[in-house]
Specification:
By secondary structure, this protein is an alpha/beta fold. It contains nine helices and seven strands, in the order H-H-H-H-E-H-E-H-E-H-E-H-E-H-E-E. It has one domain: Vaccinia Virus protein VP39 (Rossmann fold), CATH 3.40.50. 43% of the residues lie in helices and 19% in strands. It is globular, with a radius of gyration of 17 Å. Bound molecules: S-adenosylmethionine and the ligand O=c1cc(-c2ccc(O)cc2)oc2c(O)c(O)ccc12.
Length: 232
């Protein structure tokens, strides 16, 4: 595993493990822990939302009383299950991913946790799904929360659409906005497979910092998570 993945963004692996062991894992709901373990041997396991970032996300979902949410980028479903466990029994999540196979790794655990009825999984590119939602005026401003954790080159496209779908006071969260710490490294020092997305993330961070339709906080949890609150 890459060193940066083991220590999150902190400079010390010990400190990151201390945070996980003392305040995250002991409070992680059992189904989420099962899903994390079920994902651990999958070749793309590093894509799972970091448990420390997930813990804050669960608290934010409850703080805004989220009931209707959107999830872009499901993979095996760590953040999806976390959301499903954090919203009320009659809450609904529209979840989209181009790959249903990886969702099916987590699905038995989601079923066992008794929250599958809250999830509408759509196997598709996310942009056309959002555009279809926007064709119906009733969907405008009707969502409480959205989580974006997919193709980094489309983050701004997602943002523009989600700003119309999420209500004033609602939250949009973007994952990986510090991209393994590479946002401050010279391009030539960044491994090739991270370079392209790094450019999109840097551009996204620059643009969102001047977007006065939202309040923002770029939190250095997990791989960096930008929390946006729609204000107009
Ligand atoms: C980082 S993973 C998501 C991790 C997930 N949030 C979790 O907690 O496990 C990114 C996911 O985005 C999906 N993806 C990539 N491009 C996409 C697109 N254009 N539309 C929808 N999903 C996409 C990938 O198939 C992958 O499963
Ligand atoms: O290593 C990755 C790669 C991605 C990624 C790249 C390109 C896409 O179209 C979608 C996803 O996402 C990741 C991610 O969200 C993460 O938390 C860690 C690693 C990666």
């Amino acid at each position: 595993m890459e060193k940066t993945m083991r220590k999150g963004l902190l400079q010390s692996i010990d400190l990151y493990e201390y945070i996980l062991e003392t305040s995250v894992y002991p409070r992680e709901p059992a189904p989420l822990k099962q899903l994390r373990i079920a994902t651990a041997n999958h070749p793309w396991f590093v894509m799972s939302t970091a448990p420390d970032a997930g813990q804050l996300m669960g608290m934010l979902l409850k703080l805004v009383n989220a009931k209707k949410t959107i999830e872009i980028g499901v993979y095996t479903g760590y953040s999806l299950l976390l959301t499903a466990l954090s919203i009320p029994d009659d809450g609904k999540i529209i979840a989209m991913d181009i790959n249903r196979e990886t969702y099916e790794i987590g699905l038995p655990i989601i079923r066992k946790a008794g929250v599958e009825h809250k999830i509408n999984f759509i196997e598709s590119q996310a942009l056309p799904v959002l555009d279809k939602l926007l064709q119906n005026k009733e969907n405008e401003g009707s969502f409480d929360f959205a989580f974006v954790d997919a193709d980094k080159d489309n983050y701004w496209n997602y943002h523009e659409r989600l700003l119309k779908l999420v209500k004033v006071g609602g939250l949009i969260i973007f994952d990986n906005t510090l991209w393994g710490g590479t946002v401050t490294q010279p391009e030539e020092a960044v491994s090739e497979h991270r370079r392209v997305s790094r450019g999109f993330i840097i551009e996204f961070n620059k643009t969102i910092s001047t977007d006065h339709r939202v309040e923002i906080s770029l939190t250095p949890l997990g791989d960096g998570m930008t929390i946006c609150r729609r204000i107009c």
